[in-house]
Amino acid sequence: MKTFNVFKHYALGYQAVKIGFSWPGFLFSVIWLVIKKLWVHAFIVVCSIILLTSIEIYYNNAETSIMVIILELGIYIIVGVNGNNWHMNNLREHGFELLATVQADNPSSAIQKVVNT
User: Fold this and answer.
1) Which of 25, 59, 107, 115 has its CA 20 to 30 A from that of 35?
2) DSSP letters spanning 94-117
3) Are 75 and 27 in contact (CB under 8 A)?
């Protein structure tokens, strides 16, 4: 069981966001950020990756490559750790209201629990 915050928007319906680490955010950072409409975060991650890749190409040595890999991994970890909180804040900014925090196996069952109560 995972813990979800369930939000409702008067026109857009329900959204459930897991509390804690976001594995999709970690594994597919830029794509996940775009899907969740976290435009500024996606832009920052893309710019960071472009900058790090440019540094790696410019210096073109093993030490720089290892440093870039470690820094990019750090970026992905930051997205994984903070992604769900960023998503919840974005929902609030766009008019979603937090209805409840529930335990469920997946987002759909979290929404069902809130709707059925």
Assistant:
1) 115
2) TT-EEEEEEEESSHHHHHHHHHT-
3) no
Q: Which residue has the tokens 């769900």?
A: 84
In sequence order, the β-bridge partners of residue 91 are none
Percentage of the chain beyond pLDDT 70 is 100
The two structure tokens encoding residue 30: 């830029």
How many angstroms separate the CA atoms of 94 and 92, rounded? Answer: 5
Res 11: pLDDT: 95
Residue whose C-alpha is closest to residue 30's, from 18, 46, 19 = 46
The average pLDDT across 100-112 equals 96
| 3-state SS class at 37 | coil
CA 52 to chain CA centroid, nearest Å: 21
> 84-93: per-residue pLDDT in tens?
999 999 999 9
